[in-house]
Every structure is written in structure tokens, then in C-alpha cells.
# Entry
Amino acid sequence: MNLIKIDFVQLFLDSVKKHESYLLELNREQLSKKKRSDNSRITPEYKPSNKKKGNPNLFITGAYYKSYEVKLNRLFVNIGSEHKVKDFNLGEHLRERYGDKIEGLTDKNRDKFLRLAFAELEKKINDAYSRL
# Structure
């Protein structure tokens, strides 16, 4: 009898890592639509440089979007930004202003991403068993 040891958690984390760019794309898409991870609208209104009131635009320079990253460990997958300019942490400032839920996926996007990650996981498991 052939036995193999499979670390399912590591295989899942490898799947997440492989599709990290898609995960970040989903989060950036939400931000562009002014949605938090709980699906609520990002507020409060602000006055951009043109002095007109409007909805928050978290893309102004693109620095916040570009600094997004995925942090993985065996307990969680975290999306966030720690963009720093000198002593100013843009990610921290925006979380304080708009709430922690500006980072992370809505239920719909989380499900969309998990379907992709689990399909990848299933493929890796099938590949491992086919080598027996």
C-alpha cells in the first residue's frame, strides 16, 4: 500500500499565493466602487484638491492601491497596505479614517476567490493521488 503525506493547509496557502494578484484585483475593484469588505459604502465624504465634496477616492495617486499585499500564515490570509512615506503610514491613516473594513473582500468576492483557490487545491490533491 502506498501512502503519501499531504499538508492540505500548505497546499491551500500555495493556491492562494498562486492567485494572489487576482485576490488583490478583487479588493482594488471593490475600493474603486467605494465598497468596504462588509459591502457598506466607504464614507465620510471628503474635499479633494479641487475643493468639491465627493465620495472618497482612494486611488488619488495610486500609491495605496500599489502598496496592497497579501500576508499568509497557517491561520489567516490578510490583505492590507502599510505604505509609508517618511513617518506617515498611508494605510494606517486610511484605516483610521474609513475603518478597517476598507481592506478585505466582500462575501461575494471572497466566495469567488475561494472557488478558484479550492479548484486549484483539488487539482493538486488529484495530482498527488495520481502519482500513487
Remarks:
- The two ends are 9 Å apart (CA to CA).
- The longest strand covers residues 68-72.
